[in-house]
Amino acid sequence: MTLARAVEVSRRYQTVRALDRVSMEIHAGELVGLLGPNGAGKSTLINLLTGLRRPTGGRVELCGGDPRDPASRRHLGVTPQETGLPPTLRVREVVDFVAAHYPDPIRRDELLDRFGLTELAKRQTGGLSGGQKRRLAVALAFVGRPRVVLLDEPTTGLDVQARRALWDGIRSFHVEGGAVLLSSHYLEEIEELAQRVVVLGGGRVLADDTVAAVRGMVGVRRVSLTVGELPPLPGVVGVKHVDGRTHVLTADSDAVVRALVTGGVDFSDLEVRPTSLEEAFLALTGDGGPAVDGGVPGEADGGPAGAGPKHAVAGADR
Ligand SMILES: Nc1ncnc2c1ncn2[C@@H]1O[C@H](COP(=O)(O)OP(=O)(O)OP(=O)(O)O)[C@@H](O)[C@H]1O
C-alpha cells in the first residue's frame, strides 16, 4: 500500500526550481532515507507531502488523498526542520497536549521511554538543551500512532548518544509496521536505519534504490596509499589527503593500480576497498555535498565524469 506519493512533482519559488519532476513513493512499513546536499529540495518535498505547500507541477498524494485535506493527514506524523515548544510547559504536559488531539494516542510513559525522555518528563521545555528539545519534537510526531512519519533532518545537532536514542525510537515504530521518510545529511544515519534511499540533487531524483544498490551504482572504489606526488590517473572522481595517506576515489581501481605500477610511482601500503555511502553520495552529486558527521567533508576534485551514476535516474548535471 502506498502511503505517500509524488508524481512528476515540480516546485518553483520565483526563479528557483526547488524540485524538478520528482517522482517517488513511500509504502506501508518502509523506512526510506532522503539524502541530499543543502538546497537539494528535501524540505520542499516533505512540505509538499505534508500539505504545507502546493506543487507548481505534478501531484502529491498522502494516504490516498490530497495532503492539503485534513482527512488525509489523520495518519501522518511530522517533525519539520524547525520546531518550537512552549517554554513553560513541562515535557509530559507537551506530550499530553499533543495527545489530546488524537483519538488513540500512544501512552505518554511509553513514548517517553521509547525516545529516552523519561528522566526529563517533569522538566519545563524552556530549560531543555537543544538536543533534548529536538528529541522531544521528534517524539511528538509519533504520539497519534501515525501510519507514516516524515522527519526533516531529525538528528541535526544531536550528539551521538542522543542520536542513538532517537534512532531507537524511530526503529521501534518501524518494527511495529510504521512507515518513515527521514531526510538527513548523515549518511551513516541512512545506512543505519533505512532500507531504501532516495538521493536528491538539484531538485531531481538522482537515485532511488537500496543503500547497497546506490553504492553499487556508483561503483566508486577507494584506493588508499602512502605516496608523494600523484601522476594523472584514469577515472578519478576525487582525491583526499588524510593523516599522511592519499585516498583516490575512482571508477576503475584496477586501471589506477596499473597506472601507479607502470608509471613507476613510489608508493607503499596500497589498499583498495569499496566506498562508504558518503563517498557514493559525493560521486552521485558530483559536488562537495553536505557537512557530514564523523566523516571527511567533501573533497571531490571533479564531477562524476567517468564514474557517473550508471543506473541513477538522472545525472547530477541535468
Ligand atoms: N520559501 C522559499 N522561497 C524561495 N526559495 C526557497 C524557499 N524554500 C526553499 N527555497 C529554495 O529551494 C531550494 C531547495 O530548498 P530546500 O530547503 O527544499 O532544500 P533542502 O534539501 O531541504 O536543503 P537543506 O539540507 O539545506 O535543508 C533551495 O535553493 C532553496 O533556497
TrEMBL record:
It is found in: Cell membrane. GO terms for molecular function: ATP binding. Gene3D superfamilies: P-loop containing nucleotide triphosphate hydrolases (3.40.50.300). It is a peripheral membrane protein. It comes from the Bacteria. Residues 292-306 have a biased composition (Gly residues). Residues 4-227 form the ABC transporter domain. It holds the Pfam family ABC_tran. Residues 307-318 have a biased composition (Low complexity). Residues 64-83, 292-318 are annotated as: Disordered. InterPro entries: AAA+_ATPase (IPR003593), ABC_transporter-like_ATP-bd (IPR003439), ABC_transporter-like_CS (IPR017871), ABC_transporter_ATP-binding (IPR050763), P-loop_NTPase (IPR027417). Keywords: Antibiotic resistance, ATP-binding, Nucleotide-binding, Transport. This is ABC transporter ATP-binding protein.
